[in-house]
Amino acid sequence: MKKIYLYTSLILLLAAGGCKKELTQNPYDGVPTDQAFNTPADFTNAIRGAYVALRGASYYGGQDNGAMVSTPDVLSDNLVLNQAGRKSQLKFYVYNYVGNDTWELWGNAYNAISRVNLLLQNLSKLPDGEFKDNVHGEALAIRALAHFDLLRVYAKSYTSANDNDLGVPFVTSVDPTLLPARTPLKQAYSLVVTDFEDAIELLAQDNDVGRIHKAAAEGLLSRVYLYMGEWQKSADAATAAIADVPAANDLASPDEFDDIWVDATEKDVLFKIKNLDADITPVGVGYKQSTSQGVIPEYSVDFAFYQLFTDNDVRKNAYIGETEYNGIDYLYVKKYSGKRTGDADVVDIKVIRMGEVYLNRAEAYYNLNNEAGALEDLNTLRSSRYTGFVDGAETGTALGEAIQQQRRLELAFEGSRFFDLKRLNKAIERSDFGDRADGSGIPASVKTLPANDLYFLLPIPQAEINVNPNMKQNPY
Amino acid sequence: MKQKLLSILLLSLFSFSVAKAQSKTITGTITGKADGIPLPGVTVLVKGTNTGTQTDTKGNYSIDVSGNTATLIFSYIGFKTVEIAVGDNVNINVMLEDDSRQLSEVIVTGYQTKTRTDLSSSIAVVSGKEIADKPIPGIDNLLQGKAAGVQITAENGRPGANAFIRIRGVGSISAGQQPLLVVDGIQIPDDVSPQFYNTLNANDVENISVLKDAAAVSLYGARGSNGVIVITTKTGANTPSQITYSFQYGTNAKLPDNFKLMSTAQKLQYEYDLGYENYEFSTWLQQSGFPEGTTIFDITDAERQAGWNSLIANSHNWFDDILRTGKIRQHQVSVSGSDAKTNYYVSLQKYDADGITQGSDFKRYAGKINLGTQIRPWLSLSNNLSVGQRTTKELRDTYNSQNPFYAIYGYNSYEPVRNPDGSYNITSQGLNVLEGIENQPETKRFLNGYNSTTLDFHPVKGLNISTQLGLTYEDYKQEYFVKPNSILDEYIGDPSARGSKRDLGITEFAYDWINKIIYKFDAGSDHHFNVLAVQEFQKDITTGYTLEKKGFARGDLSTQDNGASNTGNNTTTRTIWTLASLLGEIDYNYKGKYYLTGIIRRDGSSRFGANNKYGTFYAASLSWLLTQEDFLKSADWLNVLKLRASIGTAGNFSGINNYQSLDIYKFGRYNNQSTSFRFQIPNPDLTWEKKLKRNIGVDFELFNSRLTGSFEYYNEATSALLLELPVSQTTGFSSVVKNVGAMNNSGIDVALSCDIIRSKNWKWSAYGNFNYNRNRVTELYNGATQIDDNNLLGTTKPSYAINTFKLVRYAGVNPETGAARYYTKDGEITEQYSSDDAVLLEGKTPAPKFFGGFGTSVSYKGIDLSADFTYTLGNYVFNYNKEILVSWGDQVYYPQATEALNYWKKPGDVNVLPKADPNNFTYDTDLYLQNASFVRLRNVTLAYTIPQAITKKYKVQSLRVFVTGQNLLTFNPHKFFGDPEVGLGNEEDFVDDIRGQTTLFTYPTTRQFTFGVNLTF
Lengths: 476, 1017
What we know:
The complex is a heterodimer.
Chain A: H1 2-22, E1 30-32, H2 40-54, H3 71-74, E2 79-81, H4 90-93, H5 105-121, H6 130-154, H7 185-202, H8 214-228, H9 231-244, H10 254-260, E3 269-273, E4 288-291, E5 294-297, E6 299-301, H11 303-306, H12 314-319, E7 320-325, E8 328-333, E9 349-353, H13 354-367, H14 371-383, H15 396-410, H16 417-423, E10 428-429, E11 448-449, H17 462-467
Antiparallel strand pairs in A: 2-6, 3-9, 4-5, 7-8, 10-11
Helix pairs in contact in A: 2-5, 2-6, 5-6, 6-7, 7-8, 8-9, 8-13, 9-13, 13-14, 13-15, 14-15
Chain B: H1 2-19, E1 24-32, E2 43-46, E3 52-54, E4 60-65, E5 71-75, E6 82-85, E7 94-96, H2 101-104, E8 106-108, E9 113-115, E10 123-127, H3 128-131, H4 139-142, E11 150-154, E12 163-167, E13 180-183, E14 186-188, H5 193-199, E15 205-211, H6 214-217, E16 228-233, E17 242-254, H7 264-273, H8 279-287, H9 301-313, H10 318-322, E18 326-338, E19 342-354, E20 361-376, E21 379-394, H11 404-410, H12 433-439, E22 442-457, E23 463-482, H13 487-492, E24 500-523, E25 527-550, E26 565-566, E27 571-590, E28 594-605, E29 614-625, H14 630-633, E30 638-652, E31 664-670, E32 673-678, E33 689-702, E34 707-719, E35 722-726, E36 735-739, E37 742-758, E38 762-779, E39 787-788, E40 794-796, E41 804-807, E42 810-813, E43 820-823, E44 829-830, E45 839-840, E46 850-860, E47 863-873, E48 876-879, H15 880-885, E49 929-931, E50 934-945, H16 948-951, E51 958-971, E52 998-999, E53 1006-1016
Parallel strand pairs in B: 1-7, 13-16, 48-52
Antiparallel strand pairs in B: 1-4, 2-3, 2-5, 5-6, 8-9, 10-15, 11-12, 13-14, 15-16, 17-18, 17-53, 18-19, 19-20, 20-21, 21-22, 22-23, 23-24, 24-25, 25-26, 25-27, 27-28, 28-29, 29-30, 30-33, 31-32, 33-34, 34-37, 35-36, 37-38, 38-46, 39-40, 40-41, 41-45, 42-43, 43-44, 46-47, 47-50, 48-49, 50-51, 51-53
């Protein structure tokens, strides 16, 4: 009988001893953070991780709940709500947003910012050299872009702001207990500019597709300066981009233009966020869905705007499709319908293109009273968008209007229109046309948003206001 | 039978050799004293030996004894044990007297069993009989209303849906709230316990103990704080060999709504009044030759009416097209029996339940073998094996028309099911659910099982040393096929590779190794001790995979080998957790009057932070059996009176990710290349929630044990709450898990049962239970005052109950303009809705103030009728169904309830909805927060047991036929819009699954009628 006690005690002891080691378990799908930034490959992985963050579900990868490719167009005068659609983004269309039902780009953009800040914090582990500079430059450019997008969405226009107006927190820390206050708007813009300028010094001339290179950062900087009304600096940055652009990304010709939208060429695209079928991010769904019974647009192209596209404009066919659904004809946004092969509505997301760079400089030159330079850039753009284009010779106000019209046509449905009207302190004036292809049907219920209206600012998400006592909501 | 004879023969030989001569055989019949009915299965034992037998079905026994000095012991559950000296008798008939439940009932406490007398903790027991033969497959759902303080809320009405189980209120904010499940002594991993409730066969359950207070749950240390449900399955011990066959057949249908949708004519008028022209009307205009661009607003009244008449003529009821009456079929065979050394219980079940639409089915096969044998007088072995496979066809459960239970309210009656060419009409919703069910089939298969092997040494009297190895297994497979060229495929698929298929699987294997010593001894005649020591180790390994392909040639070829190309989303996963524990318990009682228990447990787990790997839990309890005192012995009417009290701690480690404490980088991909990113905010201090539980109670049995019951008061303080703390999103994260904050639940549990009539032919009994629970959050974390839930409907704030609703208050319409008005935070009236004006609505939470169940059963001879009710009172639900079906005009495109017609039309209108307009927003306000109290007649069963006199002729021991009805009546005192019984808003749309917070077109509650037969021979 004593043996039984002995065996039992032995079993108990053995079992207890073996357990201790078992109590430490490490994941099979991750590494400790201190092992995350050692080799150059680690940094390459981390920077790619930041690009993935830009593709967040309410950011450049958004569809129905706020999306960089569609929401600014829904908010503006380019689109009319289609009654056959799912009424997605209705709150934006009728300017009816509140803190707990707003554009959640906030968290997505700061996620990208935190990823690059972590990389920047570890940067000293890399040996000096081209590789380090390039990754460093990309991180700074992503940080600047994300802050700039936040400013465009949640803060006033730079040109209408005074020194006390609030921007968004400019975050450079990785402290998880951070409760930042809003950085003053003008200061935040200057920090964006600084990051872009530093990035341009560091970035390589060329980079993988889907990553920012030097010309892309210069193009983005020219956009930021344009928003700030810093015309000379905007023109200079655009000039630098035009000088530095790799041949593969230079302005597309009319023949090449269609291929941009099915990702068959890198022409014209300075920076795009790669988006593959496996990423399950059908960005085009924000605009329409396809069925065998026709395309169901979420939003129709406004008929007044549609008429601005002439038949020799290659953008007309690349951007806009016609469909019959339930016996009714509609105009829908086609430019995100999918690649040559692959899932419907999955395409790379274009963030900055050469077309815009020329338009940035044209606008800047125009405002600097360099009409000749402005006209030359405008003609350069138009000759690569219209077949059989003969150079225009506009001057004065007509030239200014032509530049704005080309900007609206060129950047249609790319998330620019709302921000352009906002930065120019203009009102949104929608047409009386309805949602059908001939302009009939039900028109917009809310026709105007007065210049500098409070609703040009999206509310900061309520969750942020609740958790962060230093965060001030926009006034409504 | 031969086996039995053989063993009796061996036994008698054995006794013959020991006691030499004078052996003789005693025979007799055992009957119940109250009714004189023979008792089968009574254990007859010769005192001081292993010699024993059982009475047969007629209550007869026969046993060999060594001589006249022998004493026989007759024992049977529910009756007082009797000892009779043999003397000169050869025939001993015994009438056994009913015993109080209190004294005889054996309670499974988890690691051991105790009689109720010995118990000083709070444990509710549900017997297997109470949950057998019901037309509901899940054991969790079957517990509803059966035990005081145990709140069971079905997630929804889906066949095989699980239930929210909350024991004594919600004890946690972000961590798990479900109790631990223990089956035949094995701790089941929390991830798989919901499936165990559904794959175990309820008819195999012997009994279920629900452990509630500290003295009961601290045995389970870090896993015990939400309470423990201990299921014990049937064995063949002490039963005569028998074969039972059960059969059940019935129907399953949706409960009728308590609101009406607008008729086609009403709806068309409503649309017109709101300035909306629907597509069927547009088509009619075109077909009727009106010029291009003509709208409903351009034509004459007569023309419009003609168009409407055409639509009305073609209208139909989508309920009829989408819903069906499902069938329920159940077959079960079980065989059990025992001889002196070995017992067995074997069962097989097939259970099929059709849902109330196509594409919603539940099929289960369950098998069980429980074996026990005595290898040596000091060594016994038992093995319990259970395997169940269930297959369900699944529907989408979301707020869009892929979900049939939204679709029935989402398609207008004038929209046809099919287009003129025979294809499915995709309707104003853009999808046709009937096509979806056909072309996007989804199935889930669960194979669950456990095997528990126990080797039990009992070398000397009172000492048991055992080792038990429990293996738990779950194999989950999900298949989802988007058939080529289906409507959804055209929306989301690859035009060059039509159709896509996803196979997903999770395999979870866990082992639980328990080494245990139990020693019972007495010090003198008055001091009784029971000592328990346990060493336990648990390890859980979970692996998973996902396979996806696209490009399928045909809709009937769905295996991955038919797919043309990869989607790039094939994955596998693997996680492990461990838990190592030591446990000790001492029970002491003095003269059977005063009972004292002390428990200590130490747990260590891989889930928690490097700084906090181990935790120690304890409990102490005492009870006083007053009826053993001399001063109460004379009170005949008082059978049992016991006071008890307990205090102690338990922990909660469920609902927390395995690697939550670690600072880790994870990997993904960008442009088919590797990426890395920081996964979470780490917390090396992470540890379990601690709960301090206090309980006092009184148990009583009065009037010959006709009235029995217990009252209990409890107070449970949770501290170091595992909280998903929201952080500023500027950090790049939205939350971090920390141990902060505290919460308190206190309340009362009452359970009563009463035998009103106990005569030979008539029996009438009733039971009821009641719980009142008060929840208060006592502390959050530094600085922050409240945490909003992710659904942005409720909040958690100190000095309020958890998940108290926080909403903007609706202030009615402006009678002049018809505009909606709201109260600001400060109580001013405004027409500007701002989410910042949301205020806490004190006292309005998803948790009920009172809940429980009651019921009654009456029997006359072979006929018995029983009824079970459940009730939930004082809880509030945010009613999205109402917000959508009674909108302010923004849902004009889809069907609306007639209530939506009551909107502002002219100045002076009051008590109406705001002026209806398609551009309105029906905001979340307290207008849609409703009191969801209800009392529901859950089950009615009428049964008839054919008299044995008849069945005996056919060698049938017993034959029972029965009919049941489920969910027959509902009392909805606050006129909740729709069904007031709310579990899950729906499965797909909510981040936080807060029990009963919202309702949003999930699978509705159903009504079942079944007919069944139980046959034993």
